[in-house]
């Protein structure tokens, strides 16, 4: 866990080739490169004029591409330490990037609803794929480089044929925004993860859904196929899951307190995960030999025993440059972009660690007979007893403590032939033998490996009965830390708080919260009864009349997931409520309001603007007059909201700041 940028970090990407280097982009408009497991920046790339929103390594780790809030892309050559290209064409924030399997092209998905294919050599946009109705969250090339898959906020996955320059199909079964897509490394299979909390698998021969997972506890943000194609890893909030698809089955679930994981890679039979929180980036290691379906034994090459009749991608590289170029259409209306900022190459690189830079990014400069450093798996700390693990965890961060607690829960559910945890955290000087005894071992040299968690040994060590958190561990969190130390007994003397007084104090807060939640539940039941009767507008008006912000937020969250339910009537009714929520002290309320406002502006901004600027009609048109009245009301509310967004946009960073900037861009279209 380390500070990666001076301001908030917006994006993290791991190298998929070695899983040993990492790139981050932040609000400080810099792109920083790191060695996984080391807290020192190897190199800092400058040049963007707005916050960096998306980053991606080339397949050989020789290039990095970064997209910014303004829609500009920059490509850096890491070996030559120079900026290669500055590519412009998008009109809004870049959300996702990917390199072509053959390296000379890249693709980008943006909040402007477009997918673009870029030629890195010729500095230009080759083709723009238009079809998404909302922002594009993820883009990926197929292993053979002939297709692009894009995932959008409009609940759709689109497959684009690069050669023909047109859409092949829409995959439509998701009921929420699609956040991530990944191609199977060999077979004609695609996986997609969505905010509807499911992963769906698609057969790319007939473009039909193969299977879907059960609803998870949180939206799916990251998925990753094992390089051999034997299973799919899913990173959700504080959990790693392993799936098969024929049939759909969850092999294993491993609690990891990584929050919202940003990227996953595999190297040396270990899974590396990276997550971010404000200015902090954290990395995690999972030993795949201790995870099903690989559990207990080293995973053998070609270890996928599931036979599949599905056809495979042909991934042989075309023999010549011309054959590749001929397969890419040239779009006549997109002129090559000019590198206006490329002249300042010397200022775009700041190499902070020359030794690591030469070792990783300039391997070709070494003599042919020079020994090449072998990549070794990250070594976990040695096991120790439960008391040592508790002592180690108690002095670390709350994030680490929550991982340890989750691991203890997982330990209970293991079978009698327990397998050790894939997560490790505490460093010790003892190891646990198979018969439960301890024996001294040599302390290994300190290493800057990614953070990991130590679980209890495979067979529990005998220990005295638990006597409570204070007796068991003096430094652990105790209920007494949150209760009065003593009460006045009626005179000048104080006495300790009794058990009954403690329970009375707890019941007081519990009863108050129960009343609040009970009242909220009743209100939601009333709204639900009207909603299920088919009258959405009446249900919304009823929720507004309750004057309960929490009910409005719950309602907005439902409408945000089902954007097809929005209408001009609902927009005119809910805009005043959204304006009030933007001033809330709760970030979750503000985020829900911003997401709803983005949908309203995308869907009805052009309608409002066209109705206000259209010439008056001849004769009496009641429906047009009603529509004009609603549009006028909406425009007045939008004008008030514009002032709130302008004020708050400069005060917030991170996710809120990004949402405010996206709303500002949409508001600009109303001018």
Beta strands, count: 33
Structural class: alpha+beta
Task: Count up the helices.
Answer: 12
The gyration radius over C-alpha positions equals 28 Å
Average pLDDT metric: 74
Largest sheet: 5 strands, antiparallel
Query: How much strand?
Result: 25-35%
Helix content: 25-40%
What characteristic shape results from the CA principal axes?
Answer: globular
Strand order of the largest sheet: 2-3-4-5-29
Regions with little confidence, pLDDT below 50 for 5+ residues = 296-307, 320-326, 332-347, 365-372, 383-449, 451-476
Question: First CA to last CA: what distance?
Answer: 44 Å
Describe the fold and architecture.
Residues 444-461 have a biased composition (Low complexity). Residues 295-495 are annotated as: Disordered. There is one protein chain. The chain is an alpha+beta fold. The protein contains 12 helices and 33 strands. A 5-stranded antiparallel sheet has the order 2-3-4-5-29, covered by helices on one side. Strands 1-28-27-26 form a 4-stranded antiparallel sheet, with no helix packed on it. The protein has a 4-stranded antiparallel sheet with strand order 6-7-8-9, with no helix packed on it. Strand 7 and strand 8 (73-77) form a beta hairpin. Helix 9 runs parallel beside helix 11. The chain is globular and about 70 Å long. The chain starts with a strand and ends with a helix. The model is unreliable at 296-307, 320-326, 332-347, 365-372, 383-449 and 451-476 (pLDDT under 50).
Keywords:
single chain, 671 residues, alpha+beta, five-stranded antiparallel beta sheet, four-stranded antiparallel beta sheet, 33 strands, globular, WD40_rpt, cytoplasm, WD repeat
